[in-house]
């Protein structure tokens, strides 16, 4: 069990104190009370703590898939991650029967996480709606589709149909108390690279911003989706705020700023922690100045061969002075690959260090959030 002092601190955070965060509000003026509360708690907790997240944590893990109540993180620490990443990739580009099965699976996992007290973030590896090639850019196969799906484009109506499916998902994820689960929606991530069809070389800055604005506006205003927190997350190809903001659509269209960064944190055996920290500071500083949430939206070290990566690399960076990040998320543990994993499982070489990471008062997991809410409701 984590330090009881943490739980007491979380317990003492009341809605009144949270809403007193000066100037902080979501871009959706009709956001559900639960969504507003989730966002404001994330903002508050970023001053002194960080939530730990893992992609696809409860869907599958190293050597297993579909086991109820299981995650590799829980097998090591006794708690699921506080933030669980899921993906909308299965809601388009597939036969209707498979899309419905994927839809139902998303609803189940999201509502289960919400009922336990955790938070879900949704990425979107969006299969190209106008060509073959999937979500990656493939020369001579992929279409530069951003210009085709924005208003006036040949595939705009098709895009609206896909968004309608996402809207139905947002309206379907009701917890046991009947309220809608708040969701961190993180579309078009790593757009500053060229590996996705929405990447920097495959669309203009103006078209990317138009796509972002239409997507948010259509979900929020036309489809009446009011339980999304909208997250903007380029990759790590920036060293200044100006470059970071090159494709930023404006504060009225974004709730959370983040970055994905594997390259500075050990990918291919290379570390550049000074640059990694500088980029996180750019994100955190912008959020502080503009009353936004901030997060380390993706990172990790594949296979985690560094036995002290969690405390010597990740935790030390996250605890650096001046950072206020609501969560950090590491990538998935493939169910079949013996090497493609980013969180430890029992017996993995970094597991003892991960337990130290878990036990540090700075990090928060799902059990910390659940116990704090139980204590608050009992007051």
UniProtKB/TrEMBL annotation:
GH26 domain sequence ranges: 33-367
UniProt keyword annotation of Secreted present: yes
Swiss-Prot/TrEMBL site (Plays an important role in maintaining the position of the catalytic nucleophile) positions: 189
The enzyme's E.C. designation: 3.2.1.78
Family in the record: Belongs to the glycosyl hydrolase 26 family.
The species this protein was found in: Flavihumibacter petaseus NBRC 106054
Keyword Secreted: yes
Domain of life: Bacteria
Protein name from the UniProt record: Mannan endo-1,4-beta-mannosidase
A Pfam family hit: Glyco_hydro_26
């Amino acid at each position: 069990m984590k330090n009881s002092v943490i739980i007491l601190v979380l317990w003492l955070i009341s809605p009144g104190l949270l809403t007193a965060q000066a100037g902080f509000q979501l871009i959706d003026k009709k956001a559900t009370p639960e969504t507003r509360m989730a966002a404001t708690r994330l903002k508050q907790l970023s001053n002194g703590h960080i939530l730990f997240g893992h992609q696809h944590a409860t869907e599958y893990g190293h050597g297993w898939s579909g086991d109820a109540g299981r995650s590799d993180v829980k097998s090591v620490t006794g708690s699921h991650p506080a933030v669980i990443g899921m993906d909308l990739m299965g809601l388009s580009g597939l036969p209707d029967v498979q899309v419905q099965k994927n839809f139902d699976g998303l609803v189940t996992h999201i509502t289960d996480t919400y009922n336990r007290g955790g938070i879900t973030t949704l990425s979107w590896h969006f299969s190209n709606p106008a060509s073959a090639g999937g979500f990656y850019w493939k020369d001579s196969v992929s279409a530069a589709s951003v210009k085709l799906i924005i208003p006036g484009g040949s595939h705009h109506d098709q895009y609206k149909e896909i968004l309608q499916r996402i809207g139905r998902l947002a309206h379907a994820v009701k917890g046991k108390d009947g309220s809608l689960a708040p969701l961190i929606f993180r579309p078009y991530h790593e757009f500053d690279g060229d590996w996705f069809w929405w990447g920097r070389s495959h669309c203009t800055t103006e078209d990317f911003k138009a796509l972002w604005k239409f997507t948010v506006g259509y979900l929020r205003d036309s489809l009446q989706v009011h339980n999304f927190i909208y997250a903007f997350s380029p990759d790590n190809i920036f060293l200044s705020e100006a470059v970071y903001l090159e494709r930023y659509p404006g504060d009225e269209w974004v709730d959370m700023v983040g970055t994905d960064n594997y390259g500075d944190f050990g990918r291919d055996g290379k570390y550049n922690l000074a640059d990694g920290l500088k980029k996180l500071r750019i994100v955190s500083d912008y959020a502080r100045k503009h009353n936004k949430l901030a997060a380390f939206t993706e990172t990790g070290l594949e296979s985690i061969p560094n036995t002290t990566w969690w405390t010597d690399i990740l935790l030390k960076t996250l605890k650096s002075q001046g950072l206020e990040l609501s969560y950090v998320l590491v990538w998935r543990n493939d169910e079949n690959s013996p090497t493609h994993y980013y969180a430890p499982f029992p017996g993995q070489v970094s597991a003892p260090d991960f337990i130290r990471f878990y036990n540090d008062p700075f990090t928060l997991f799902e059990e910390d959030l659940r116990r704090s809410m139980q204590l608050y409701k009992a007051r």
